[in-house]
Write a structure and sequence with these properties.
DNA binding, 28% helix, alpha+beta, 5-stranded antiparallel beta sheet, Thrombin, subunit H
């Protein structure tokens, strides 16, 4: 493990895997060569399989036996999972008699569990199976309703909150930003003395009418069974939820109007997905019978990329070291993505190193100097004291 990079060796594959994380999310999974450390192939998933014949102390247990008894298990198409377990177990039983006697292999029943054993353990828990083919006897009515429309009628909103509270509901209001919370707080204050308490980010009382938290929920809902109501600020204020693009430059890095006006043909542009290209001007492109203006960018080997004016958040003016020759990126090549991943990993590593350094500084003990001796005092007293004009004025 190095920063946000984890190398994994699975007995199910010939080559190891390198998993790159971005925070808590997996950004990429690639096989790599142990000797050269170079990536070989990008994959979407992998199976972590241990050395099943490793002779460890103790007996093997099912994964389900390790879970607390009050665990809620949510499965997707349980029947398919059971079929997979049965097929795997059958293959193991068929393969076992044909294995070489030179290596002592464990019996299938010592390594794996059958479909029947798994289902028996599974049914001891509270479960939810998300399936496309539910049977009539397991249908569940969740008694859910969408958030009611208030059409900016805040007196109606407050009456609804009071009614929900009297009926024993827990009411939550989701805010997309602190400004939105302050806005609703000011409106509530103008109507009544009730207000949202400070401290957004933690779940806090909402003037006796609910609780608030920061989130970007798409829509509110009412759960009548569990008596929970969750409202969103954008539905309260009758506005569309603003979509935030994940792959976008920071606002300070995006093209401003000043940048657009100063762009010249031949200037270098950086696209967050495709890398460094050259700006070749604004052109009109016909797309499904509709004409729209696009940025025309040229890349290595003369490849062209047309960027809609609605996607300008993905490009920025190239900002690199002066005097260095600029190399255009190649469309379709993984080089730019690899460079981004390496840069992110390097930045993360630097951040981890800084955190470690400051932690060491905080826990380390300072050097204790001895108090001044009479020799130090005599040396200090031997220097004549001369006042400077400005300090002398301030003393006066």
């Amino acid at each position: 493990m190095r920063g946000g990079i984890v190398d994994v060796f699975s007995y199910a594959y010939e080559k190891p895997f390198r998993i790159t994380f971005f925070g808590n999310e997996i950004e990429s999974i690639k096989t790599f060569d142990i000797e050269t450390q170079l990536s070989i192939e990008k994959v979407d998933e992998l199976k972590l399989v241990s050395n099943m014949n490793f002779s460890a102390q103790g007996s093997k247990v099912s994964f389900l036996e390790l879970l607390p008894k009050d665990t809620l298990i949510v499965s997707k198409n349980l029947s398919l999972s059971l079929d997979g377990i049965e097929n795997f177990y059958t293959k193991a039983e068929t393969k076992y008699p044909t294995l070489s006697d030179a290596i002592k292999h464990r019996k299938p029943e010592e390594l794996f569990i059958s479909k029947e054993v798994f289902l028996k353990d599974y049914q001891t828990f509270r479960t939810i199976d998300l399936t496309h083919n539910p049977s009539s006897d397991i249908l569940q009515d969740w008694a859910m309703l969408p958030q009611p429309s208030f059409h900016k009628n805040f007196e109606m909103l407050m009456e609804d909150l009071e009614q929900k509270q009297q009926e024993g509901y827990k009411v939550w209001i989701s805010f997309s930003s602190e400004k939105q919370q302050e806005r609703l707080e000011d409106i509530f204050k103008s109507i009544t003395s009730s207000s949202i308490e400070d401290g957004i980010g933690n779940v806090l009382p909402l003037g006796g009418k609910g609780a608030s938290f920061l989130s970007s929920l798409h829509a509110g809902f009412i759960d009548n069974e569990n008596k929970i109501a969750v409202y969103t600020d954008h539905q309260i204020f009758d506005r569309y939820q603003r979509f935030k693009a994940k792959n976008a430059f920071a606002k300070s890095e995006q093209l401003t109007l000043k940048d657009l006006m100063s762009l010249k043909i031949g200037d270098y542009i950086t696209h967050i997905d495709h890398g460094i290209g050259k700006f070749m001007g604004l052109v009109k492109v016909n797309n499904d019978g509709k004409t729209q203006e696009c940025f025309k960018l040229t890349y290595k080997n003369g490849d062209l990329l047309y960027v809609s004016i609605h996607s300008l958040h993905k490009i920025s003016k190239y900002n690199g070291p002066e005097g260095k020759e600029i190399t255009l990126s190649k469309l379709g090549s993984p080089a730019w993505k690899n460079l981004k991943n390496k840069t992110k990993a390097k930045v993360k590593q630097i951040a981890f190193d800084l955190i470690k350094l400051y932690a060491q500084r905080k826990t380390s003990k300072d050097f204790a100097y001895s108090p001044d001796s009479y020799l130090q005092n005599e040396l200090e007293a031997s220097f004549p004291l001369r006042g400077y004009p400005r300090p002398r004025k301030s003393h006066l």
